[in-house]
Amino acid sequence: MVQVAFYDWAEDSVYEFAVIAAKKDGKWLLCRHGKRNTWECPGGHREAGEGIEETARRELFEETGAEVYTLQPVCAYSCMRDGGDASFGMLYFAQIERLGSLPDYEIAEVECFDALPKEREFWTYPDIQPYLIDKLDSFLREGLEKERK
């Protein structure tokens, strides 16, 4: 069992990966790895010498071909499996304006969805991604409420 916890912020050095929930033309943009039949938000592991935002930008391009976009940090999170050590990631939200060609890396396809599915079998990381989606929903709702005031 994986435990997911959320934080407003963490020291940049603790982040191991970035996950980017992305929208394009009002739809959710997800990707499918070439070796899997499941879907995931763009993201991946941090490379040596990268800041976590650099990781997010690199992964967003590599996994979707995004060329023009805005990127907002949502929150830090940790995952801990069966009492092991926690690993930390940063969740971002991207509003994509323009996609270029999908780079020739591990992603087989990118697709837009009207809504983010809740079914566990849809997701590559079903013990983590539904929690990130719920957190993102809260983040987006709070942003809309602030805009209305």
Task: Write up this protein.
The chain has helices spanning 52-64, 129-148; strands at residues 2-7, 15-24, 27-33, 43-45, 66-81, 87-99, 107-113. The protein is built from two helices and seven strands. Helix content is 22%, strand content 42%. The chain is globular. Strands 1, 2, 3, 4, 5, 6 and 7 form a seven-stranded mixed beta sheet that branches. The longest helix has 20 residues, at 129-148. The mean pLDDT is 91. It is α+β, with helices and mostly antiparallel strands and 149 residues long. A hairpin with a 5-residue loop joins strand 5 (66-81) and strand 6.
Describe this protein with a few key phrases.
149 residues, alpha+beta, 2 helices, 7 strands
